[in-house]
Amino acid sequence: MSTRKPLIAGNWKMNLNHLEAIALVQKLAFALNDKDFDRVEVAVLPPFTDLRSVQTLVDGDKLRIVYGAQDLSQHEGGAYTGEISGAMLAKLNCTYAVIGHSERRQYHREEDDLVNAKVRAAYRHSLTPILCVGEGLEVRQEGAHIAHSLGQLDGALRKITAEQAKSIVVAYEPVWAIGTGEVATPEDAQEVCGALRVRLAELYDTEVASAVRILYGGSVKSGNIAGIMAQPDVDGALVGGASIDAAEFTKICRFSDMPG
Ligand SMILES: O=C(CO)COP(=O)(O)O
């Protein structure tokens, strides 16, 4: 039995303004209790414009929900119009920063070098990266999904020390399962998550490999979370669409009560 605390993280993507963000976090705080937070770490990942409001609410009401950003700049500051720095996110007490999400790789042409630079920027500001890896449909059909995901992991972790790597969160998100309703089977998720953990042991050591939390993401719902969480190398979920529905996200956080 692993000692890794499960993490259920809601990636809101480009949904909900700051007022809607407050309403959703309030609903989650009302629905979830101390027993839930003892069992599972619950994180929300709202748009940048919501973070200050979420921080104020979490601080003011001493909520046990943690939060983070969906991206950050690799730069420290200066003439980078439209970018948000790690220092700015750290000042808002963000715990996490999502890095290398497939939507950024696809629509913003983020490659492994940039992803690596962002991972390093996150560590400079004591933010925990939620590093996303995962293959598209063609790669899966060729049977190259493991090599592809491991390649993205290798690329992202260049120059990252064992001490740093120990705290990273890796999210395996097969692109063909994102927002499509096409969920990978629990065995598909385990196959790649297990391979990612073996690679962490090769890149570092077994201490790092057994400390790192590896999440699955892609059409996670209350109806499929239990089977996914039953896999030995899956330590949580990165939830998209279902994370902006308070009742549904609450059920996902209570995955141990859901039918498998
Ligand atoms: O991309 C995802 C989370 O980062 C998954 O999105 P969906 O849960 O909407 O498929």
Summarize the structure.
By secondary structure, the protein is of the alpha/beta class. The chain is built from 13 helices and eight strands. It has helices at residues 18-31, 34-39, 48-60, 86-91, 102-107, 112-124, 137-142, 145-156, 162-165, 186-203, 206-211, 225-229, 246-253, and strands at residues 7-11, 41-45, 66-69, 96-99, 128-133, 169-172, 213-217, 236-239.
Q: What's the arrangement of strands in the largest beta sheet? A: 1-2-3-4-5-6-7-8
Largest sheet: 8 strands, parallel, barrel
Small molecules held by this entry? 1,3-dihydroxyacetonephosphate
Shape, principal axes of CA atoms: globular
Series of secondary-structure elements, N-terminal to C-terminal: EHHEHEHEHHEHHHEHHEHEH
Q: From the helix content, strand content and strand pairing, which structural class follows? A: alpha/beta
Radius of gyration: 17 Å
Q: End-to-end distance, in Å?
A: 18 Å
Number of strands: 8
Kindly state the percentage of residues in helix: 40-55%
Question: Given the structure, what is the number of helices?
Answer: 13
**Strand content bin:** 5-15%
Give the integer mean of the pLDDT values: 97
Low-confidence stretches are: none
How is this structure best described in words?
It is an enzyme of class 5 (isomerase). It is found in: Cytoplasm. Substrate binds at residues 11-13, 179, 219, 240-241. With 260 residues, this protein is of the alpha/beta class. Helix content is 45%, strand content 14%. The protein has 13 helices and eight strands. The chain has an eight-stranded parallel barrel, surrounded by five helices. Helix 4 links the parallel strand 3 (66-69) and strand 4 (96-99). Helix 1 crosses helix 3, helix 1 crosses helix 13 and helix 8 packs across helix 10 (186-203). The protein is globular, with a radius of gyration of 17 Å. The protein starts with 6 loop residues before the first strand and ends in a 7-residue tail after the last helix. The model has no long low-confidence stretch (mean pLDDT 97). 1,3-dihydroxyacetonephosphate binds next to strand 8. 1,3-dihydroxyacetonephosphate is lined by residues 11, 101, 173, 178-179, 217-220, 238-242.
